[in-house]
Amino acid sequence: MGYLTTFVVFSLLAILTFAYADEHTTDIEIRNNCPYTVWAAAADIGGGRRLDQGQTWTIREPPHAIGRIWGRTDCTFDSSGKGSCQTGDCDGVLNCTGWGKKPNTLIRFALDNRNDLDLFYISLEDGFNIPISFTPTVVTSGGKCHAISCTANINSECPDDLKVTGGCNNPCDVYKTPDGRCNTYSTEKYFKFFKEKCPEAHSSPDEDSSEFMFDCPSGKTNYKIAFCPLGNAHQNFPLKMTATTHEVAK
To answer: Hey, what's the signal peptide range on this chain (predicted)?
Structure first.
């Protein structure tokens, strides 16, 4: 299933099933375990938060929410919340209302679909900048309601053709056909690299959605996201990034 098709499916599920899901909110806790500052971002209800190592930010999502959450690195913001980030920047503001500038590792989710399920997956559609995990607080036996992660050191192992400062581009953003589509012939070996490093993450537009989409019963669990879930004890932990100290908006 391609990127656009996946987005349309998520949108239709939320619109068509509004009347059938229970009216409840879902909490998503975002924790930064990286030894550098990460500026978390959310694009559905909008928002952003500076997270130093060990800090958390909890988002309360409304029923039927569709969104994406990612981390931004090497940011500087002034007292009004305006500034910029090296990766994941969202129109130069602390509180995001739009999507982040590539590359950035994504968590994508759709709450309360017509089968009474929350759908979620890790996406490398926009490339990679920070290791990440997504964990339900209540894990059900069987099925696909369990923690998923992408913890590999993709930044340091990124192929030269895809490498940018602070991250690793998705191959489709580098290799395109004359009409602007993904050149699947040129990208095959790079998608193999992504799949080997993060087998639970979606990266290629040719992948079947069933291979990367996970689900939990709606209203039965909250969720936790961790940046650098393995912390700095992991042998493949990315090189430390120096956080700026001038921003005052938090």
So the answer is: 1-21
